[in-house]
Specification:
The protein is mainly beta and about 375 residues long. About 15% of the residues lie in helices and about 40% in strands. The chain has a four-stranded antiparallel β-sheet with strand order 1-24-23-22, with no helix packed on it.
């Protein structure tokens, strides 16, 4: 359909619409205008709290940022912590350490109500991975029970995601194939119901994120023949689904995942524990490198209200923040919105108001 035909159809719509409907449509179009989030804004330096941050989690409801920090990563060290920051000012507000004998190398996080779930890993392999639940209001914490705790020897949870009721975890295990874990009936914590799905052979599950329908996407951290792989599974049955491969743009050990818009139906941002942030376009299924220059880009998250991308640069001890370039405006699924479309809406609104004022003067 040509641009001219689209504009004619819009004009007919406006002629038949009242001012309120035009304003609502204008606000809607402006609200979904997105550009690529690759314009550097600033960073959060975590060195006052510790070193080696791994995961960033945005809580837009309560205007908080949660950052998991490993600290030394020494054998036997249990000096990990969670830093809490203000979403607007980026000032550090509090720290959750869960005592001095709990958090080792905290990784991915997920928030359900007042409970923050943290993947408590041990990258030295001395202790098996577990998940710690922290009450963000009181600071009380409870580690997962026997059904949640993994055996020692290199078995760890890497990332977490949630639908608000259930919790999923990607894992890297000492056996060649990792698992995707689902924890339900979380009201029974520390002993929820646990279900496991084996990932594809030789996969190591890192980042996890829910997609459209029953899809859940897992970033593969194994490299080799799996370099650049982000694999979908049915979150209920475990059936293997679509494979997205970022290897063509140089990606290797896949790490963080974040949708810019509707899960599964918008552009996907991802990292690979390397120097870059990559993007898969929902519009044309293309893969591109959109940001470079990291020491080790780990987990990512997007503040959709303020259109900000947060990228953990782990060995640089900071979280780098990116916004959209003012010259670029796109829908969240990659389609061009552009200033022309918005200006057209404003023009139609002005014409409608003038027509309304003219008719009122006649009466």
């Amino acid at each position: 359909m040509s641009v001219q035909i689209v504009f004619v159809k819009f004009y007919v719509f406006f002629r038949r619409s009242n001012v309120k409907n035009i304003v609502m449509l204008l606000l809607f179009v402006c609200s979904i205008a997105w550009g690529q989030l690759n314009d550097y804004i600033g960073s959060i330096d975590v060195t006052n709290e510790g070193i080696n941050p791994e995961c960033v989690l945005i809580d837009s409801t309560n205007f908080k940022i949660y950052i998991s920090i490993h600290n030394t990563q020494n054998t036997g060290a249990k000096d990990g912590l969670i830093g809490v920051y203000d979403l607007q000012t980026h000032n550090q507000e509090k720290i959750f350490q869960c005592g001095s004998n709990v958090l080792i190398d905290p990784m991915g996080m997920a928030l359900i109500g007042n409970f923050l779930y943290v993947a408590n890993s041990d990258l030295t392999g001395i202790t098996g991975g577990n998940i710690v639940r922290i009450n963000v209001v009181t600071g009380d914490w409870v580690s997962g029970g026997n059904g949640v705790a993994l055996p020692a020897g290199g078995n760890n949870y890497f990332d977490l995601t949630t639908d608000g009721t259930n919790l999923w975890a990607g894992s890297s295990l000492s056996t060649p194939t990792g698992n995707l874990y689902r924890f339900s009936q979380l009201e029974n914590w520390p002993n929820p119901t646990v279900n496991t799905t084996s990932l594809v052979t030789n996969a190591r599950g890192n980042g996890v994120i829910l997609g459209a329908g029953n899809d859940i996407w897992v970033a593969d951290f194994s490299g080799g023949n799996h370099a650049g792989h982000v694999q979908s599974y049915d979150r209920n049955t475990g059936t293997v689904g679509t494979l997205w491969n970022f290897f063509s743009v140089g990606a290797n050990l896949m790490d963080g995942l974040a949708w810019i818009g509707e899960p599964g139906n918008s552009d996907l941002y991802t990292t690979d524990w390397g120097a870059n942030v990559y993007l898969r376009s929902h519009k044309n299924n293309s893969y591109t490198t959109i940001i470079s220059g990291f020491e080790h880009a780990a987990d990512i998250d997007i503040d959709k209200n303020n259109k900000r991308l947060y990228v953990v640069d782990m060995t640089a001890d900071e979280i780098k923040i990116y916004g959209e370039k003012k010259s670029e405006k796109h829908h969240s699924n990659g389609h061009t919105c552009g200033a022309i479309g918005i200006e057209f809406l404003f023009l139609m609104l002005i014409l409608k108001l003038l027509s309304k004022f003219k008719n009122r003067n006649k009466t």
